[in-house]
Amino acid sequence: MKTLATIYKEFLLLIRDPGGLALIFIMPLALVIVMALVQDAPFRDYQEVKLDVLFVDQDADSLSAKVKQAFDSSPNVNLVVKTDTAEVKKLIQAGAFKAAIVIPANSSETLREKTKQLIIEVFSNFGLAEASKDSVDMNAIGIKILFDPAIKSNYKQTLTGGVQKIIAGIQAQWILDELQNQLSEGRADVKKTKVSLTDIIQVKEQYASEKKYQGLMLNSVQHNVPAWTMFAMFFILYPLAGNFIKEREEGSLLRLRLISGSQFPVISGKFAFYFMICLLQFVLMIAVGIYIMPLLGLSKLVLGSNIAGILLIACSVAMAATGYGVLIAVYFRTPQQALSFGSVSVVILSAIGGVWVPVYVMPEILQTISRFSPMSWGLESFNDLFLRQASIQTILPNVLRLTGFSLVTLFISVIIHKSRTIL
Predict the structure, then answer these.
(1) For domain 50-209, which CATH number applies: 3.90.228.20, 1.10.1200.10, 3.40.190.10, 3.40.1160.10?
(2) What value, to the nearest 5°, has the Cα angle with vertex 342 and ends 40 and 252?
(3) Per-residue pLDDT tens digits for 345-356
């Protein structure tokens, strides 16, 4: 009965506190929407952004044509053709474009001559042809890629790698063609074989997911909804600690302690009520991810198929958040101390736990420290369930960590509450 009475009392206190209701429900919903919108572009940087690249064709031959054709078929690069290299350099320096590709004059002709000379030298080493008397300069053809100094390194590496891959494919194709030309020289009956090197080996990209979840990857919504949901759940300490300390200052807890019997029902009642509030927060935030985010032009939150696992990890995070809030409420004597320490500690736990940015982009030392944050345990489990369609066995270690964290904080809270003399 004492536990139920405590739950009812906490319910009355909460509904009479408009500020507390806004902090628990309205602010987290606004926060997750704003953060998803703000971080949508950075997440797209690694996924589907289209980069405008200037293209200067001084060659006007087959090499530049093949390079242009390859990039025209790319979904991530939009070539903007220019003729004046001086103008192109000014545009790059001004930041109007991030990169430019310049194909020098006579590149195709030079590559043909180099290819022919290379095949002749190979044949001459085997005594199949005489070495050419007119040697060709074998220095590399100077294809230029101009970059804006402010370009992101991943863009630079991707564009450079793409150009090198295209040129390597063209070189290989021309070497094969020249080889057939040399072997068929003087023989009219030989039919040349048309070979597409890209048909021999194909690299296919896909995610290691079930068929119906193919293409699902970490994006702004998939990261921010579970991340900021946990952040909101841990901020349950604000109304919990505020009401607890207020009762202690007004003497309500003293009157409760004068009643014979254990004080555990008082702690457990507060714990049970705010545990249910945390679960309500979780449901509302998930609903925002599913129904509101698409209306804002963002991706829809995909939960995966393991609903039981989602409920299990949600309950575990709610227990950990409530247990931490109870510990803060019991330990500190004034609202200022409790709320100051509580808010700063939650921000730190969320920062190292991957709420602000994913853990994998953090420095190595922070990645190591993040393993000790309850939010990291929860967020990792949500990613396992939402993105990897993991089983309950996969998330069970994190469930046990969160549950253990909750029980430890609750046990310490009961000890402190019993030992502390209220004057």
Answers:
(1) 3.40.190.10
(2) 135
(3) 998 998 898 888
